[in-house]
What does this fold into?
Amino acid sequence: MSLIEIKDLHVSVDDKEILKGIDLTMNGGEVHAIMGPNGTGKSTLSYVLAGRKGYEVTKGSVSFDGKDLLEMEADERARAGVFLAFQYPLEIPGVATSTFLKTALNAKRRESGLDEIDAMEFLNLIKAKTKELEMPYEMIKRQLNVGFSGGEKKRAEVLQMSLLEPKFAILDETDSGLDIDALKIVSNGVNALRDPERAFLVITHYQRLLKYIVPDFVHVIVDGKIVESGDQSLAEVLEAEGYARFEKRAAA
Amino acid sequence: MTTVKSSLETTFGSAYANALGALPGANESWVDSIRQTSRAIVESGGFPGPKTEAWKYTSLREIAKTSFIPASEADDVDVSAAPVGSPVLEGALQVVFVNGVYRQDLSTSFEGVQSGVTLGPLADVLKNNPEHLKDVLASAAIPGESFVAALNTGFMEQGIYLHVEADVEMSRPIQVVSIGASGAKPGAFHPRLQFVLDQNAKATVLETHVGLPGQPYLSNPVTEAILGPGSTLKHYTLVCEDSDAYHLGRSAVCVSEGAQYESFLLSLGGKLARREVQVRLEAVGASAIVDGAYGLSGSDHSDISSEILHLAPETISKQTVKGVLGGKSKGVFQGRVHVAREGQRSDGRQLHKAMLLNRGPEVDCKPELEIYADDVQCAHGATTGEMDSEHIFYLLSRGIDEQTARAMLVEGFLDDVIFDISDDAVRTLVLDMVKRWLVRQSALIAEGV
It folds into this structure.
């Protein structure tokens, strides 16, 4: 049984169909990249998998780890092992990063029948994780993402992912707004989490990120459908030729 | 002007008239004249009604219909301790009033307060050394400018007087605790706090206004502060009255050259709680922080009406007020920022944000910016809305359940402004009070819109 099976997924937002029949199967250990022009449904796919409200599934199914993912609330999905790294992580004034991380981690631990994490153990864990991602430890005292630079926000997303150890991680345009150094750090963070039990869905507009996070499969999505799939070389073709020929094919 | 004139006599009747001659300082002609003038304003004007601009959103009708006795005369009230859950500022000099009466037995002794600091019951100063108050009393809290100030000044009896001499920094904060409690009859009290800081003096004062359940009471406190050049006053006010009680309070502050006034108001309601604040930035470089937060539920009514006056060049003010409302509560924020012609190169920033927990509450927000100088930086903003659904989703996407997520977001919304309180102990105390308030509202918060 595959970890994720998306079958003929149709999704509408405000009665407008955005995804028009997505089929995608992913196994543990695999990294799949989804590429495509802007406005083609990439972010919609990430949100509908994470369980955001306002997306109506009109047809199709998604199974995750043998369960019907679409029947679960967003927080249940997260506790079951789905993680979305946001394209634009939200700034939440007044909520300390440490409180947020601890609450999320404990929610996950409770689900697995574990006790809440000991305060000392938590601090040591954060110390180790922030060091790996070359982030100052003091960031956990700051308000969640408030005043963080673009690069700091993306690193903070990877930190959360690393802490919550998902089975299925979706990276939505994680490369946007990153300079080359930050891109390397974030990519290294993601690569360190590659694991035979874990699948990644990497959504990106550019091939650049895929030089650092090398995918096993590349899918091109145009107008709400996957129009071509291949290996990493497909990303290189796209980089050289752009999306024009796929857009023509979708229109034909 | 619509008034409820006829009921004034009913509201503050003969018991008040009898008490007047015996008030401290009554034999001092200038004190007596300030009281007489104030009472004349109250009596001739009556209770302001909805056509008075300053009272458009807050009705005094319920208060006008009630007959109050001077609360100090209630002999059927037993308060031998502060109400359970009253916040206590560790390390502070405690000055406790019950129904406006100074309670030595519940207060820290004034003996041995550091040199350069005069701190004592206001009634003693009015009686024995009224000259200390001669240039101060009613110089900032001007009876003609505010019904609340006039009502207090007409009937003021007890309170505290604090004078910090030049270059003296108070080593301990002061906590003034005002407890309201009515016996069989509703009582009213009018405490008066007078602060005078000389050049470069520093002091921290926390006022807490709490009460016991029972018959309604009316708390009508006025704080008047005069800040000398280069001085710093941190002034924090917590209004946490009983849900059947009325609170009509005013802080009036004059800030002189280079002096800093930092204030924070936390209002957790009452049947009707109106806090007025007026800050006069009177000389070059005077600055003020006039922040606040409020949490309302049930049928609470909170009114924060503020006036910040930039009367001199290079004066700075910052005001952020955030409120969370549930039930059928009503929140009023009126904020006037005035920059006079003399206020060149001044900087005034004001923000009011309200979060509604359900569809029941009402928020009336009236920001006013009046600028007569041509070289100033001023900004103001106001928002009212429900909890941000994107914020909720972000927390859910990390496995946090919706109930916890909502509670975290409401707390964060208020904590955001509370974090700006510079006094560590007060900040901790306010965060804790808000947390406890939120726990009491948890069912409401979880339910959502």
Q: What stands out?
A: The radius of gyration of chain B is 21 Å. Residues 29-45 of chain B form the longest helix (17 residues). The longest strand of chain B covers residues 202-211.
